[in-house]
Amino acid sequence: MSVQIRDLAGVRASDPGRVAALAAARRAPDGLVGSTGRLMLVAADHPARGALRAGADGLAMADRSQLLERLATALSRPGVDGVLGTADVIEDLLLMGALEGKVVIGSMNRGGLAGTSFEIDDRFTGYDAAAIQRMGLQGGKMLLRIDPEDPATARTLEACAAAVSQLADRQLMAMVEPFVSHRVEGRVRNDLAVDAVIRSATVAAGLGWSSAHTWLKLPVADDIDDMDAVIASTTLPILLLGGEVAEDQDTQFAAWQKVLANPQVRGMVVGRSMLYPPDGDVAAAVDTVVGMM
User: Fold this and answer.
1) Rounded CA gap, 107 and 238, in Å?
2) What's the farthest any 2 CA atoms get from each other in the chain?
């Protein structure tokens, strides 16, 4: 599929109401899992936080037409259930007709821009629960980084708890992506030691007035053999985070497959490592990940 930015921009300029009309008419998915019995989502909410890097290319995700083409390819592959994105990306995909029958999760807090002094103060600058319901989306996703030395963590915790409650009120999925994070030489780094991943998961699971609709989006810990301890820390459904593009993708895929063997892991949310694989073959990367499911 060749995506013409000028065509999408033309519709946005001349007929902006088409977005809401398409959202209202969109065929909803039958549930949150598809043919694999698990949930497979493509993540595309990185650009709104200024995180454009994929592998060695610092601006890989800056070319919107290329990003949309890669997303359309991924969404067309068997076993891919849907997408996670900000409103701009989701609306482009709506205009392209790529979201029929797909699970669509709206990204909620993108205010903690990558590389900024206020990165931990992750304000809700995207979807809110009311808009997610109005647009017919299946849920909302929030990033929760817990920095023990940054007081802004408290504001982000409070905002995430409110969002979980508001989504639960509407019986919509709340996808929480937690990390324990620290500043290292001025940059925010996520701690993937098993005890840090466990701690972040237990904090995220307790947010809001109800966890009935909460799913956790968790990374693979540094020690893959300790992932059973991470999974044992919660009864909530777990989605595995794809993470950065790996130079050795075979090793990365093997680690994912090992974790997916646990039935509590209900699926995966993969972005850059599947949309920008080292060999450039998006369809093959998607098919490999779906095969693990």
Assistant:
1) 17
2) 55
d(CA 180, CA 187) in angstroms, rounded, equals 14
Q: Quick one: which of 243, 245, 277, 275 has its CA closest to 259?
A: 243
Q: How far apart are CA 225 and CA 261, in angstroms?
A: 12
Q: Walk me through the domains of the chain, giving residue ranges and CATH numbers.
A: 5-292 (3.20.20.70)
Distance CA 257, CA 267 (A): 11
Q: Centre a 10 Å sphere on the Cβ of residue 225 and count the other Cβ atoms it contains.
A: 9
10-residue mean pLDDT profile of the chain (293 residues): values are 80 95 96 88 95 87 93 96 98 96 98 95 97 98 97 97 98 98 94 96 98 97 89 96 73 85 93 90 92 84
Structure tokens at 6: 């000028």
Question: What share of residues in the chain are helix, strand, coil (percent, to 5)?
Answer: 40, 20, 40
This prediction's pTM: 0.95
Structure tokens at 230: 């991470």
Structure confidence at residue 136 (pLDDT) = 98
